[in-house]
Give the backbone structure.
Amino acid sequence: MSLRSQFKTSPKLETEGVWLELGNTRIRLARAGGQNQKYNAAMEKVSKLHRRAIENELLSSEKSLAILRDVYADTVVLDWETNIGTEDNPNWVEGIEPETPGADLLPVTRENIIATFKELPDLFLECKRTAEKMMYFSQSLLDGTVKN
């Protein structure tokens, strides 16, 4: 496999996103970085706002996570769907699975995304890992040239 086919990313995938499917939930994620200029600008803005705290190592890990959840909700999470059908006959609809089984799906809003990420920190970390991993946004995926 050539160097370019291993490392060339697709601007289309980076901005239009890839689906991360987790059971009955799927989340479409843009790349955190790369061609996602909204993400890059947001991170630059928060870095400037908190530069002194960052330089002096005064930014708590909880504050850092809160900032990242905000940035991801604004610039990385593009869609969020829940399967209200079955595994064999899926019916994907926009919405976030509520904490209470049987309740209506939550609308996909910035606030609900952030609240869900805060409630389920490992979900946020999985989304973050996916959005940061170059291989998920590879041009070879778009071209269908990935080999197992």
Notes: The radius of gyration is 17 Å. The chain has one domain: 10-143. Helices lie at 3-7, 11-16, 37-49, 51-55, 61-75, 110-119, 121-132, 139-143. The chain has a mean pLDDT of 90.
